[in-house]
Amino acid sequence: MRIEENVVLAPYTTFKIGGPADFFCTVTTKKDLEKAIVFSKEKKIPYHILGGGSNMLIADSGFRGLVIKFVLRGFIWKELNSKSVLVTVASGENWDAFVAEAVSRGVYGVENLSGIPGSVGGTPIQNVGAYGAEVADVIESVTAYNTETLVFQNFSNKECGFGYRDSYFKTAEGKRYIVIDVTFLLEKEGKFNLSYKDLTKYFTDRGVAPTLASVRAAVLEIRGKKFPDLQKFGTAGSFFKNPIVHKRDAERLKKQFTDMPMFSVSENKIKIPAAWLIEHIGGFKGIESNSVGSFENQALVIVNYDKARALDVLEFAHSITEDIFLKTGIRLEREVQLLGF
Ligand code: EPU
Hints:
Elements: E1 4-8, E2 20-27, H1 30-43, E3 47-50, E4 56-58, E5 63-70, E6 75-79, E7 84-90, H2 95-104, E8 129-130, E9 133-134, E10 139-146, E11 151-156, E12 177-187, H3 197-206, H4 212-226, E13 234-238, E14 244-246, H5 247-256, E15 263-264, E16 269-271, H6 274-281, E17 288-289, E18 292-294, E19 301-304, H7 310-328, E20 337-339
Parallel strand pairs: 2-5, 3-5, 4-20
Antiparallel strand pairs: 1-2, 6-7, 7-12, 8-9, 10-11, 10-12, 13-19, 14-16, 15-16, 17-18, 18-19
Helix pairs in contact: 3-4
The protein binds uridine-diphosphate-2(N-acetylglucosaminyl) butyric acid.
Uridine-diphosphate-2(N-acetylglucosaminyl) butyric acid binds near residues 196, 197, 261, 298 and 300.
């Protein structure tokens, strides 16, 4: 394992933004991971684990520490019984390649999560979700490395503390862990989950019966329209989380903004699509400023159209949050993780 100095991070992120890390290494084994952590402890510098770089915004000035590009590979498929399959996937595997493999093996559970960029190791941390499914629904357990005690630990699904785009691994205490592998419980005779509006419409319009392959194709087609081509532009997907408000605030808002879509998440909690607020309250959809814009087909997706700086992205995001707050009292929270600020 070689530790390089002054490595520009932009090419390692899907946003294509970010200055240099003081130190950078690529780690492919558990042993080298330990060496890298020990290096950062000895130098008394922070470390950051980089997976697919698909959900982060890195400062223009970079990161004063060690960035560890962690690419542990491998799959272990195991038939649990006549109904279920357990698969342990190393954190450095590409998420969508795993979904494609599960679909081609005919096992259910991750097909709705097709086309999401990034690596498997990042998915439990922010409980990745799309089209009515979340990884929390299919995660059996997670193996993680404790960077304080230098031991490997197993977390059951419950111990991962999953919530909407949230988990134990995002807490102050949980941040000391590095995800090593994730074990998924998939079904051989599962049911399709087509409840998400766009998917229901896709299958009713075409009048075709869903199969694992056709659900994957549907999700890829729907996503393809809502996200910019990652080969052409930089983006980290949804920039904000969908806000969850108290029912009484939702009722107040509904009187003022009668078209506002709302989804009940529990007895007193209502989720409001951030994309709707950005488009209909803020009027930012399709707007571009300093090479940063809200995507014309999905307002929640913030795009780096051409060499935007992190500062430009944050300024654009700030103008959105301020505007929405002034008009509705809702504070949008970032979904994208920051590094180096
Ligand atoms: N809408 C608008 N304008 C837009 C887009 C959407 O008004 O430009 C409204 C519509 O009412 C629509 C609603 O917002 O029904 C929801 O939009 P969409 O179905 O596109 O999903 P989303 O809530 O904006 C979430 C996830 C995405 C995930 C999609 C699909 C979050 C923060 N985002 O977006 O996840 O792909 O659902 O399930 O929960 C990500 O986390 O990075 C991500 C891309």
